[in-house]
Amino acid sequence: MRFSRRTLIRAAVLSLLAPAAALPLNTWSSGPFTIRLSDGGLNILKDGCIAVEGLTFAFNFIRPDSVFLSEPSADTLVLGLRFGEGDGFHADFPSHVNVTIRRNGDGLHFLAGHRSFEHVSVRMKDRDEHYYGLIEKLYPDNAHNPDLRGRVVDVDVYGEGSRDYAENYASAYSAFYMSTAGYGSFFDTFARGRYSFAIQGITSIEHQADALDWHLFFGPDGARIHEQYFRVIGRPKAVPLWACGPVFWRDLNRGGSDEILDDARRFTDLRVPLTACWVDRPYSNGANEWSRMDFSEKFADPEKWIRILGGEYGLRFMTWVGPMTFQDRDFPGLLPGYRGYMDLTDPACLAEFERRLAANQYAAGVKGHKMDRADENFPFTEPWHDPVRESESRNKYAYLYSKTIHEFLSRAHGADQFNFARAAFHRCQPYLSAVWCGDSRSNWKGLQGSLANAARSGFMGFPVWGSDTGGYLGPGRIDETLYSRWLNWSAWCGLFEIKIDGSGGEGEDRPPWKYPVSLQNAFRAACEQRMDLLPTVYSRANTSYKNGVLMQPLAYRWPTDGKTHEIWDEYVFCGAFLVAPVVTPVPMREVYLPEGRWFEFRDPATEHAGPASITVNAPVDAIPVFVHENSLYVTGDIFRGNSRKWKAGLNGNGTLVIHAFPGGRGDSTAFAYVDAFDGDQEKRLALSRSEKTVVFESEPLSSAASVEIRCDAKPVSASLDGVPVRIRYDERRRIAAFALPLKASARLELRIR
Questions:
Q1: CA 5 from centre of chain
Q2: What is the C-alpha to C-alpha distance for residues 517 and 515, in angstroms, rounded to an integer?
Q3: According to the model, what pLDDT value does residue 475 have?
Q4: What is the 8-class DSSP label of residue 369?
């Protein structure tokens, strides 16, 4: 049969006008993403490049027989899965499952659920990626390298210290990892998981969960990926200014409150600046000298001596807490077991826990807590007041512990409080001020292991992290060189806390007054350095929701630079500083500098060009620190703890120095300064560079401030808000300095050669 030309044309037009749903859907695009269905699963393209390849899902270990795309819209797609068989356990295991895929900016969210699901699996092809995150401890074989490629990792909080050769009770976990392929993976569940990376060409995620709730966040570096992550789990908790300074403590205060006051006096006599301290257990009455949560006779009249710490020495005071009563059963809502863990879902338990802390501690002036335990000898099979799946109990308990203590402190003190824990899980970040790395060894191995833990915690997205300076496990007194190195490093950590005795108070104490003058000087210098950095630490801690964690491993900042993938002993601190701690007795080390110009922190006239590896000398009283081009940071005198004893009070709102290191032509950067004297408003500081000018701009600051700009040569001229100003140029340091107007915006322009 022959058709006329008109009939053929009409048929062609009708076929073009036919509904798109009538055709097989193999590709969907939304914003920067394209999702393609292939024989091996889904391929996800970001900006035209494959980011995830061969993505597949399984439920209760049953994989679908066929997969199809349907119901596309601008930001949502449905992935249909058909199953030819059940799981053999559940009669209602579905024959069809819809996985909803939603685009949210630069992220994708995958959702699916069914009452029969007990296990969810995600698989994808390895694309020669490197993987970071999930777990703080040096697992599975005490490796310092944070790269998990080729590893199998369990994500389940546990506190069996004897299982770990390295740092006992390093207990931060998260179902979050990031890949050098440019994405972060977050499985939003408390259920235990197992991750296998690049095993026989496959990377897999498994959780004993009842639903698929999985996010992919895409970005050029860790900060951009974490910015999206924090939009999902909530902003990290705000940190008060006083908690950003040096903090001291003892594992055992045998001398009670008199010893705490005497330590404060001795530190002050040595002019070592501090901002806070805490008392560790035991200090209470009851089982294990804790369960009553009050202050025992050695610490009698807490209102009086805590007031002296604050009024005379300017120190905020915190205490140890644990979520158990040990052998004391005189407490409602305890879980079975000899530790007496509290059921943190039981209203009566929570009410009594808060009542004791509020009446005995907060009323006396306690401003925060070191949150111990929650991971050790935990009865994870026992029923809770609010039912919880056994696979979720340990991880969820760590989360509830942070949330509970945060809520207690917030009701007592508003935002002027601080809590830090060794056991943490994802979603703790909005309720937990900081993480500390558990019981590290008091030797060089412990210093090295702690630094490696810091890298892993940074990848997971815990913004503020610190270690027991000097270590925990071992004798009190430690080698002077080791002590100095650890102090120098801790001054450049998110949390700077210093332990001045041995494990359980054993051995000779290690406060600075029991060491030679050389160590006393190093101790003082580290604490002074930290006090000078307070404006930057405070600002970055309270803007981590958009700027990322404070201690960023090099692969977090430069994921496409292959040299960074195995580096565990360097990191970028507060966005500007490359910190390279010395973790052996040898007074030198090799430092890898990624791309760009790098300036020595203590001698900004000296610069290095990256990428390059250099060998640096490192005297015992110094730590190698470099400043990256196109960076801003702020130093200054804005808080005085015990230093008020030799410096008196602040003059007004203190003083600031803004340090600007311009980049190349066309570069620009900004720093969000959190103004503690103006309602914690974020004040924008901006720096830009053109061929002939460097421009610095500032919103009004409530503290007297000056700006120091690193220039290769003396600027030709300068103007402040269009008015010519005099240039003060330090030829030796290559720094041009200018005073800024108080409480007024400013635009400083330098004409350069």
A1: 70
A2: 7
A3: 82
A4: E
- In the prediction, which pLDDT does 14 show? 30
Give me 210's structure tokens. Answer: 């009842």
- Asked if 159 and 476 count as a contact pair (C-beta separation under 8 A), the reply is no
- Report the distance separating Cα 62 and Cα 58, nearest Å: 5
263 within 8 A of 313, measured Cβ to Cβ: no
Q: Please list the alpha-helical segments (H only) found in 94-203.
A: none
One-letter amino acid of 198: A
Q: Which neighbouring-strand residues pair with 109? A: 102, 215
Q: 720 pairs with which residues across the strands?
A: 723, 748
CA gap 375, 339 in Å, rounded: 11
Does the CA dihedral 616-619-625-626 come out positive or negative?
A: negative
Cβ atoms of 418 and 433 closer than 8 Å:
yes
Q: Angle at the Cα of 716 (from 714 to 717), degrees rounded to 5?
A: 110
439: DSSP letter:
B
pLDDT beneath 50: ranges in the chain:
1-23
H helices of 80-214, in order, are none
List beta partners, residue 553. 571
What is d(CA 514, CA 492) in angstroms, rounded to the nearest whole number? Answer: 24
Write down the pLDDT at residue 21. 41
Structure tokens at 299: 């610490």
Residue-wise pLDDT tens digits, 248-271 = 999 999 999 999 999 999 999 999
462 neighbors 495 (Cβ within 8 angstroms): no
**Structure-token pair, residue 77:** 């797609």
User: Residue 614: left if φ>0, alpha if ψ -120 to 50, beta else—which one?
Assistant: beta
The confidence score (pLDDT) of residue 342 equals 97
Q: Are strands 171-179 and 423-424 parallel, antiparallel or unpaired?
A: parallel
Q: Is the pTM of this model over 0.90?
A: yes
- Distance between CA atoms of 264 and 268, rounded to whole angstroms? 6
Give, for 613, the enclosing helix (H) or strand (E).
strand 603-617
Residue count of the chain: 753
Nearest to 274 by CA among 21, 25, 498, 566: 498
Q: What is the pLDDT of residue 24?
A: 64
Q: Helix (H, G, I), strand (E, B), or coil: what is residue 352?
A: helix
Q: Which two tokens stand for residue 76?
A: 């949502």
Burial 209-230 (b: 16+ CB within 10 A, else e): bbbbbbbbbbbebbbbbbbbbb
Radius of gyration, CA atoms only, the chain: 28
> What DSSP assignment string belongs to 628-652?
ESSEEEEEEE---STTHHHH-S-ST
